[in-house]
Amino acid sequence: MKHQILSVAVILSTLVVSCKKDKMDTIPPVSPTQAILTFENVVKPMKYVESGIFKGEGSVQMDNKEIKNLILPSNDPKTNSASFTFHAGKGQRLMFTMMFGASKDWFFAAKQPGIELYDEKGNPKTGVITSDVSLWDNGSKENTNGTKEDKVITSIKDKTMPQNLMKLILSYNEQSSAFTLKIINTSKGKKDTEGNSLETPFAPGVWVVANTLGGKLLDEKPFFEAGQKSTKELTILSETGNPEPLYQKVKAQTGIITGLSPAVVVVYTGNKNPLFTMGQKATEGLKKLSQMGDVKTFQMELKKLKEVKEVYIAGNAPIAPNTKVMTTIKKATGDKVAYALMFGYSNDWFYANSTNILTTDRGNLTDKTALYDSGTGVDQFPGAGNKQALFGGIPQKEDKVIEKVGNVFPLPKTNEVIKVTLQ
Q: Do 326 and 246 belong together in one domain?
Protein backbone atom coordinates (compact mmCIF):
# COMPACT_ATOMS: atom_id res chain seq x y z
CA MET A 1 0.00 0.00 0.00
CA LYS A 2 1.43 3.35 -0.97
CA HIS A 3 2.25 5.52 2.03
CA GLN A 4 1.72 9.22 1.80
CA ILE A 5 2.32 11.81 4.45
CA LEU A 6 -0.90 12.21 6.37
CA SER A 7 -2.97 9.93 4.15
CA VAL A 8 -6.74 10.15 4.35
CA ALA A 9 -6.79 7.41 6.97
CA VAL A 10 -4.21 9.19 9.09
CA ILE A 11 -5.99 12.53 8.82
CA LEU A 12 -9.25 10.91 9.83
CA SER A 13 -7.54 9.21 12.75
CA THR A 14 -6.38 12.56 14.09
CA LEU A 15 -9.96 13.78 14.09
CA VAL A 16 -11.09 11.08 16.48
CA VAL A 17 -11.59 12.45 19.98
CA SER A 18 -11.39 9.69 22.58
CA CYS A 19 -11.87 10.08 26.26
CA LYS A 20 -9.45 10.67 29.04
CA LYS A 21 -5.99 10.45 27.40
CA ASP A 22 -6.71 11.31 23.73
CA LYS A 23 -7.83 14.90 23.39
CA MET A 24 -7.92 17.51 20.66
CA ASP A 25 -8.88 20.88 22.05
CA THR A 26 -8.23 24.26 20.48
CA ILE A 27 -10.52 26.16 22.86
CA PRO A 28 -8.68 28.92 24.74
CA PRO A 29 -8.05 28.16 28.41
CA VAL A 30 -11.05 28.76 30.59
CA SER A 31 -9.40 28.14 33.96
CA PRO A 32 -6.02 28.43 35.69
CA THR A 33 -5.57 24.68 35.19
CA GLN A 34 -5.21 24.99 31.41
CA ALA A 35 -2.58 26.26 28.96
CA ILE A 36 -2.37 26.60 25.18
CA LEU A 37 0.50 24.98 23.26
CA THR A 38 0.95 26.40 19.74
CA PHE A 39 3.01 25.13 16.80
CA GLU A 40 3.61 27.48 13.87
CA ASN A 41 5.35 26.74 10.56
CA VAL A 42 7.45 29.84 9.93
CA VAL A 43 9.53 28.52 7.01
CA LYS A 44 10.05 30.96 4.14
CA PRO A 45 8.78 29.34 0.91
CA MET A 46 11.80 29.21 -1.43
CA LYS A 47 11.24 28.52 -5.12
CA TYR A 48 14.06 26.01 -5.59
CA VAL A 49 15.33 23.13 -3.50
CA GLU A 50 18.68 23.06 -5.35
CA SER A 51 20.48 25.18 -7.94
CA GLY A 52 23.95 25.48 -9.38
CA ILE A 53 26.33 26.26 -12.22
CA PHE A 54 27.75 23.66 -14.60
CA LYS A 55 30.77 24.18 -16.83
CA GLY A 56 33.20 22.37 -19.07
CA GLU A 57 36.98 22.06 -19.00
CA GLY A 58 37.68 23.33 -22.51
CA SER A 59 39.08 26.70 -23.55
CA VAL A 60 39.55 28.74 -26.75
CA GLN A 61 41.58 31.79 -27.74
CA MET A 62 39.60 34.81 -28.92
CA ASP A 63 41.03 38.30 -29.49
CA ASN A 64 44.23 37.26 -27.70
CA LYS A 65 42.20 36.23 -24.67
CA GLU A 66 41.65 32.73 -23.30
CA ILE A 67 38.02 31.85 -22.67
CA LYS A 68 37.72 28.97 -20.20
CA ASN A 69 35.09 26.58 -18.81
CA LEU A 70 33.64 25.71 -22.23
CA ILE A 71 32.12 22.48 -23.51
CA LEU A 72 33.90 22.16 -26.84
CA PRO A 73 32.88 20.57 -30.16
CA SER A 74 35.77 18.11 -30.02
CA ASN A 75 36.49 14.40 -29.88
CA ASP A 76 38.21 14.72 -26.51
CA PRO A 77 35.92 13.37 -23.73
CA LYS A 78 37.66 15.66 -21.25
CA THR A 79 36.69 18.86 -23.07
CA ASN A 80 33.54 17.94 -25.02
CA SER A 81 31.31 17.21 -22.02
CA ALA A 82 30.24 18.40 -18.59
CA SER A 83 28.22 16.76 -15.81
CA PHE A 84 26.36 17.84 -12.70
CA THR A 85 24.41 16.02 -9.99
CA PHE A 86 21.10 17.02 -8.39
CA HIS A 87 18.34 15.47 -6.30
CA ALA A 88 14.65 15.15 -7.11
CA GLY A 89 11.50 13.28 -6.17
CA LYS A 90 8.49 12.29 -8.24
CA GLY A 91 6.86 15.34 -9.84
CA GLN A 92 9.93 17.54 -9.58
CA ARG A 93 11.70 18.62 -12.76
CA LEU A 94 15.12 19.76 -13.91
CA MET A 95 15.47 23.12 -15.63
CA PHE A 96 18.69 24.49 -17.09
CA THR A 97 19.98 26.99 -19.62
CA MET A 98 23.31 27.80 -21.33
CA MET A 99 24.58 29.98 -24.19
CA PHE A 100 24.99 28.73 -27.75
CA GLY A 101 28.57 30.02 -27.87
CA ALA A 102 28.87 30.81 -31.59
CA SER A 103 25.93 33.20 -31.61
CA LYS A 104 25.05 36.74 -30.68
CA ASP A 105 22.29 35.88 -28.21
CA TRP A 106 21.08 32.30 -28.56
CA PHE A 107 20.64 29.93 -25.66
CA PHE A 108 19.64 26.35 -24.97
CA ALA A 109 17.03 25.62 -22.32
CA ALA A 110 15.20 22.63 -20.93
CA LYS A 111 11.61 22.43 -22.06
CA GLN A 112 9.10 24.07 -19.74
CA PRO A 113 8.12 23.32 -17.04
CA GLY A 114 11.35 21.33 -17.04
CA ILE A 115 12.64 17.86 -17.82
CA GLU A 116 10.36 15.18 -16.39
CA LEU A 117 12.47 12.86 -14.23
CA TYR A 118 10.00 10.10 -13.32
CA ASP A 119 7.24 8.28 -15.17
CA GLU A 120 3.68 8.02 -13.87
CA LYS A 121 4.59 4.97 -11.78
CA GLY A 122 7.42 6.79 -10.06
CA ASN A 123 10.21 5.06 -11.97
CA PRO A 124 13.22 7.29 -12.75
CA LYS A 125 13.91 8.19 -16.35
CA THR A 126 17.43 7.43 -17.49
CA GLY A 127 19.37 7.34 -20.74
CA VAL A 128 19.33 9.82 -23.62
CA ILE A 129 16.94 12.76 -23.06
CA THR A 130 18.16 15.25 -25.68
CA SER A 131 14.65 15.78 -27.07
CA ASP A 132 13.75 17.62 -23.86
CA VAL A 133 15.88 20.66 -24.80
CA SER A 134 15.09 23.63 -27.08
CA LEU A 135 17.12 26.40 -28.75
CA TRP A 136 16.02 30.03 -28.32
CA ASP A 137 16.79 33.53 -29.59
CA ASN A 138 16.99 35.97 -26.69
CA GLY A 139 15.83 38.87 -28.90
CA SER A 140 18.45 41.29 -27.61
CA LYS A 141 20.89 41.27 -30.55
CA GLU A 142 20.60 40.99 -34.32
CA ASN A 143 21.82 37.55 -35.35
CA THR A 144 24.36 38.56 -38.01
CA ASN A 145 25.97 41.86 -37.01
CA GLY A 146 25.15 41.91 -33.29
CA THR A 147 23.41 45.28 -33.22
CA LYS A 148 21.09 45.83 -30.30
CA GLU A 149 17.48 44.62 -30.61
CA ASP A 150 14.44 44.84 -28.36
CA LYS A 151 12.42 41.77 -29.31
CA VAL A 152 10.76 38.95 -27.43
CA ILE A 153 12.24 35.50 -26.89
CA THR A 154 11.46 33.16 -29.79
CA SER A 155 12.17 29.56 -30.74
CA ILE A 156 14.68 28.96 -33.54
CA LYS A 157 13.83 25.34 -34.21
CA ASP A 158 13.53 26.22 -37.91
CA LYS A 159 17.35 26.38 -38.00
CA THR A 160 18.07 23.10 -36.26
CA MET A 161 17.01 20.87 -33.40
CA PRO A 162 19.23 20.71 -30.29
CA GLN A 163 19.53 16.93 -30.60
CA ASN A 164 21.64 17.58 -33.71
CA LEU A 165 24.13 19.55 -31.62
CA MET A 166 24.30 17.75 -28.28
CA LYS A 167 23.62 14.54 -26.44
CA LEU A 168 22.16 14.53 -22.93
CA ILE A 169 22.49 11.39 -20.81
CA LEU A 170 20.70 11.01 -17.47
CA SER A 171 21.70 8.48 -14.78
CA TYR A 172 20.22 7.79 -11.34
CA ASN A 173 21.26 6.66 -7.86
CA GLU A 174 18.25 5.09 -6.15
CA GLN A 175 19.51 5.25 -2.55
CA SER A 176 20.25 8.98 -2.62
CA SER A 177 17.59 9.89 -5.22
CA ALA A 178 20.36 11.71 -7.09
CA PHE A 179 20.44 12.20 -10.85
CA THR A 180 23.54 13.03 -12.88
CA LEU A 181 23.15 14.80 -16.22
CA LYS A 182 25.98 14.56 -18.74
CA ILE A 183 25.99 17.10 -21.58
CA ILE A 184 28.06 16.13 -24.64
CA ASN A 185 28.78 18.63 -27.42
CA THR A 186 28.19 16.91 -30.78
CA SER A 187 28.03 20.07 -32.93
CA LYS A 188 31.32 19.46 -34.72
CA GLY A 189 30.76 19.71 -38.48
CA LYS A 190 27.00 20.35 -38.14
CA LYS A 191 25.17 22.86 -40.38
CA ASP A 192 21.79 24.57 -40.30
CA THR A 193 19.04 24.26 -42.91
CA GLU A 194 20.74 26.95 -45.01
CA GLY A 195 24.16 25.32 -44.95
CA ASN A 196 25.72 27.62 -42.34
CA SER A 197 27.99 26.11 -39.72
CA LEU A 198 26.45 25.33 -36.34
CA GLU A 199 29.67 24.11 -34.79
CA THR A 200 29.83 25.84 -31.42
CA PRO A 201 31.20 25.68 -27.91
CA PHE A 202 28.67 25.63 -25.08
CA ALA A 203 29.19 28.24 -22.37
CA PRO A 204 28.70 27.50 -18.64
CA GLY A 205 25.06 27.21 -17.62
CA VAL A 206 22.65 27.41 -14.70
CA TRP A 207 20.36 24.66 -13.39
CA VAL A 208 17.54 24.50 -10.82
CA VAL A 209 15.15 21.96 -9.31
CA ALA A 210 11.94 23.61 -8.10
CA ASN A 211 10.48 23.03 -4.66
CA THR A 212 7.04 21.49 -4.46
CA LEU A 213 4.22 22.57 -2.15
CA GLY A 214 0.79 21.01 -2.16
CA GLY A 215 1.86 18.85 -5.11
CA LYS A 216 2.69 21.86 -7.29
CA LEU A 217 6.03 23.24 -8.47
CA LEU A 218 6.72 26.65 -6.95
CA ASP A 219 8.24 27.90 -10.23
CA GLU A 220 7.62 26.35 -13.65
CA LYS A 221 9.48 29.03 -15.64
CA PRO A 222 12.57 30.11 -13.69
CA PHE A 223 14.56 31.58 -16.57
CA PHE A 224 12.20 32.97 -19.20
CA GLU A 225 8.78 32.91 -20.81
CA ALA A 226 8.42 32.42 -24.55
CA GLY A 227 6.98 35.45 -26.33
CA GLN A 228 8.07 37.82 -23.56
CA LYS A 229 11.09 40.11 -23.20
CA SER A 230 14.18 38.59 -21.62
CA THR A 231 15.51 39.47 -18.17
CA LYS A 232 18.82 41.27 -17.74
CA GLU A 233 20.35 38.14 -16.15
CA LEU A 234 19.39 35.85 -19.03
CA THR A 235 20.50 38.50 -21.53
CA ILE A 236 23.98 38.51 -19.99
CA LEU A 237 24.12 34.72 -20.19
CA SER A 238 22.88 34.53 -23.78
CA GLU A 239 25.13 37.35 -25.03
CA THR A 240 28.35 36.75 -23.08
CA GLY A 241 28.11 33.23 -21.67
CA ASN A 242 28.46 34.55 -18.12
CA PRO A 243 26.11 32.51 -15.87
CA GLU A 244 26.88 34.29 -12.61
CA PRO A 245 24.13 36.98 -12.55
CA LEU A 246 21.43 34.44 -13.40
CA TYR A 247 22.80 31.99 -10.85
CA GLN A 248 22.85 34.61 -8.10
CA LYS A 249 19.22 35.41 -8.90
CA VAL A 250 18.05 31.80 -8.46
CA LYS A 251 20.45 31.14 -5.58
CA ALA A 252 18.66 33.84 -3.57
CA GLN A 253 15.47 31.76 -3.94
CA THR A 254 17.07 28.38 -3.22
CA GLY A 255 16.58 26.57 0.07
CA ILE A 256 15.01 23.62 1.86
CA ILE A 257 11.39 24.04 2.92
CA THR A 258 9.00 21.70 4.68
CA GLY A 259 5.53 21.08 5.93
CA LEU A 260 5.01 19.78 9.47
CA SER A 261 2.77 16.99 10.68
CA PRO A 262 0.22 17.40 13.46
CA ALA A 263 2.01 17.36 16.81
CA VAL A 264 1.78 14.59 19.39
CA VAL A 265 1.70 16.19 22.85
CA VAL A 266 1.82 14.47 26.24
CA VAL A 267 1.49 15.64 29.82
CA TYR A 268 3.45 13.34 32.12
CA THR A 269 5.09 12.93 35.51
CA GLY A 270 8.68 12.06 36.32
CA ASN A 271 11.93 13.07 34.64
CA LYS A 272 11.98 10.73 31.62
CA ASN A 273 10.49 12.00 28.35
CA PRO A 274 8.01 9.26 27.33
CA LEU A 275 8.25 10.15 23.62
CA PHE A 276 11.87 9.08 23.08
CA THR A 277 15.34 8.80 24.56
CA MET A 278 18.45 9.96 22.74
CA GLY A 279 20.78 7.07 21.91
CA GLN A 280 17.99 4.48 21.97
CA LYS A 281 15.87 2.96 19.20
CA ALA A 282 12.59 4.58 18.19
CA THR A 283 9.31 2.87 18.99
CA GLU A 284 7.00 1.81 16.19
CA GLY A 285 4.80 4.81 16.90
CA LEU A 286 7.65 7.30 16.67
CA LYS A 287 8.84 5.58 13.50
CA LYS A 288 5.46 6.10 11.85
CA LEU A 289 5.27 9.70 13.02
CA SER A 290 8.76 10.53 11.72
CA GLN A 291 8.35 8.71 8.39
CA MET A 292 4.72 9.42 7.48
CA GLY A 293 3.32 11.94 9.92
CA ASP A 294 1.05 9.16 11.22
CA VAL A 295 0.07 9.94 14.83
CA LYS A 296 -2.34 7.08 15.54
CA THR A 297 0.10 4.34 16.57
CA PHE A 298 2.07 6.76 18.72
CA GLN A 299 -1.14 7.79 20.49
CA MET A 300 -1.96 4.19 21.32
CA GLU A 301 1.55 3.53 22.64
CA LEU A 302 1.66 6.59 24.84
CA LYS A 303 -1.69 6.21 26.55
CA LYS A 304 -0.56 2.81 27.86
CA LEU A 305 2.29 4.38 29.84
CA LYS A 306 1.65 4.92 33.56
CA GLU A 307 3.59 8.17 33.69
CA VAL A 308 1.51 9.70 30.87
CA LYS A 309 -1.52 11.59 32.18
CA GLU A 310 -2.83 13.07 28.92
CA VAL A 311 -2.24 12.65 25.17
CA TYR A 312 -3.22 15.43 22.76
CA ILE A 313 -2.97 15.94 19.01
CA ALA A 314 -2.44 19.50 17.76
CA GLY A 315 -3.80 19.82 14.23
CA ASN A 316 -5.63 17.49 11.90
CA ALA A 317 -3.73 18.11 8.64
CA PRO A 318 -0.20 19.01 7.53
CA ILE A 319 0.97 22.38 8.86
CA ALA A 320 1.90 24.40 5.78
CA PRO A 321 4.19 27.45 5.81
CA ASN A 322 2.61 30.48 7.52
CA THR A 323 -0.01 28.41 9.33
CA LYS A 324 -0.27 27.21 12.92
CA VAL A 325 -2.14 24.75 15.12
CA MET A 326 -2.74 24.62 18.84
CA THR A 327 -4.07 22.44 21.60
CA THR A 328 -5.24 23.17 25.13
CA ILE A 329 -3.51 21.09 27.80
CA LYS A 330 -4.10 20.49 31.48
CA LYS A 331 -1.46 21.89 33.78
CA ALA A 332 -0.54 21.10 37.34
CA THR A 333 2.43 21.82 39.57
CA GLY A 334 5.27 19.44 38.77
CA ASP A 335 3.71 18.02 35.58
CA LYS A 336 5.75 18.17 32.40
CA VAL A 337 4.81 18.49 28.73
CA ALA A 338 6.58 16.96 25.71
CA TYR A 339 5.87 17.13 21.98
CA ALA A 340 6.98 15.69 18.64
CA LEU A 341 6.01 16.39 15.03
CA MET A 342 7.42 15.28 11.68
CA PHE A 343 9.71 17.37 9.50
CA GLY A 344 7.49 16.58 6.53
CA TYR A 345 10.05 16.85 3.74
CA SER A 346 12.31 14.16 5.23
CA ASN A 347 12.61 10.39 5.39
CA ASP A 348 12.46 10.05 9.20
CA TRP A 349 13.05 13.33 11.03
CA PHE A 350 11.00 14.98 13.75
CA TYR A 351 11.05 18.11 15.88
CA ALA A 352 10.77 17.64 19.64
CA ASN A 353 11.59 19.40 22.87
CA SER A 354 15.25 18.88 23.81
CA THR A 355 14.85 19.66 27.54
CA ASN A 356 12.19 19.10 30.18
CA ILE A 357 9.34 21.63 30.10
CA LEU A 358 6.87 22.18 32.93
CA THR A 359 3.21 22.61 32.09
CA THR A 360 3.35 25.79 34.17
CA ASP A 361 6.12 27.31 32.03
CA ARG A 362 5.29 30.21 29.73
CA GLY A 363 6.64 31.79 26.58
CA ASN A 364 8.56 30.85 23.45
CA LEU A 365 9.82 27.25 23.59
CA THR A 366 11.55 27.25 20.20
CA ASP A 367 15.04 27.40 21.71
CA LYS A 368 14.13 24.24 23.64
CA THR A 369 13.20 22.49 20.39
CA ALA A 370 15.56 20.44 18.20
CA LEU A 371 15.46 18.34 15.02
CA TYR A 372 16.00 14.60 15.49
CA ASP A 373 16.63 11.62 13.22
CA SER A 374 14.61 8.58 14.33
CA GLY A 375 17.20 6.24 12.79
CA THR A 376 14.53 4.22 10.99
CA GLY A 377 15.01 5.36 7.37
CA VAL A 378 17.99 6.21 5.17
CA ASP A 379 18.20 9.97 4.68
CA GLN A 380 17.81 11.66 1.31
CA PHE A 381 18.05 15.34 0.36
CA PRO A 382 15.14 17.03 2.21
CA GLY A 383 12.30 17.81 -0.16
CA ALA A 384 13.98 16.00 -3.06
CA GLY A 385 14.06 12.32 -2.12
CA ASN A 386 11.83 9.88 -3.94
CA LYS A 387 11.56 7.56 -0.92
CA GLN A 388 10.10 10.34 1.21
CA ALA A 389 6.40 10.22 2.09
CA LEU A 390 6.07 13.63 0.43
CA PHE A 391 6.48 11.85 -2.91
CA GLY A 392 4.49 8.74 -1.98
CA GLY A 393 7.63 6.79 -1.13
CA ILE A 394 8.66 4.41 1.65
CA PRO A 395 12.05 5.11 3.27
CA GLN A 396 14.78 2.54 2.86
CA LYS A 397 15.03 0.66 6.16
CA GLU A 398 17.65 1.75 8.67
CA ASP A 399 18.32 0.42 12.17
CA LYS A 400 20.07 3.13 14.17
CA VAL A 401 19.49 4.95 17.43
CA ILE A 402 17.83 8.35 17.73
CA GLU A 403 20.20 11.28 17.36
CA LYS A 404 20.10 14.94 16.45
CA VAL A 405 20.20 15.75 12.74
CA GLY A 406 23.66 16.90 11.70
CA ASN A 407 24.89 19.26 9.00
CA VAL A 408 25.03 16.91 6.01
CA PHE A 409 22.33 18.96 4.28
CA PRO A 410 21.96 22.77 4.06
CA LEU A 411 19.07 22.93 6.51
CA PRO A 412 17.45 26.10 7.82
CA LYS A 413 17.81 26.70 11.55
CA THR A 414 15.09 25.38 13.83
CA ASN A 415 13.73 28.87 14.51
CA GLU A 416 13.50 29.42 10.74
CA VAL A 417 11.10 26.48 10.42
CA ILE A 418 9.05 26.20 13.59
CA LYS A 419 7.85 28.38 16.46
CA VAL A 420 6.56 26.72 19.62
CA THR A 421 4.84 28.71 22.37
CA LEU A 422 3.11 27.85 25.64
CA GLN A 423 0.60 30.34 27.02
A: no
